[in-house]
Write a structure and sequence with these properties.
Layout: E1 3-7, E2 10-13, E3 18-25, E4 32-39, E5 45-51, E6 61-63, E7 71-76, E8 81-86, E9 95-103, E10 115-116, E11 120-125
Parallel strand pairs: 2-11
Antiparallel strand pairs: 1-3, 3-8, 4-5, 4-9, 5-6, 7-8, 9-10, 9-11
């Protein structure tokens, strides 16, 4: 069956960098769209970044306004892994980060995703 496993979270200081990984099994990664979402305590789960399924060798990415320029989503289809590189981290980036998989076109809507990982905690201290 399809499984998503996030890793790479931790406790960092403001201004630090961190890279999250999402290992996908049970299907061919190049055929699906992948996204990262996050959920802070007491808040709803919010869209962070997305990367479309691979069209030949290219794909489309887009980001939430709050992370544009600081976070980068990428994928390594050969490793069946999606990454979220985070830099210039801020305390407000503190949340549980989830990767999610969607068949077809990418989207920023949480209710459109087919599979979710268990999440990885990122805590940014000031």
């Amino acid at each position: 069956q399809v499984q998503l496993v996030e890793s790479g979270g931790g406790l960092v200081q403001a201004g630090d960098s961190l890279t999250l990984s999402c290992a996908v099994s049970g299907l061919t990664l190049s055929s699906v769209s992948m996204s990262w979402f996050r959920q802070a305590p007491g808040k709803e789960r919010d869209f962070v970044a997305t990367i479309s399924r691979t069209n030949r060798i290219s794909h489309i990415t887009y980001y939430a306004d709050s992370v544009e320029g600081r976070l980068t989503i990428s994928r390594d289809n050969a490793k069946n892994t999606v990454y979220l590189q985070m830099s210039s981290l801020k305390p407000e980036d503190t949340a549980v980060y989830y990767c999610a998989l969607k068949y077809g076109m990418t989207s920023d809507g949480t209710d459109e995703y087919d599979y979710w990982g268990q999440g990885t905690q990122v805590t940014v201290s000031s």
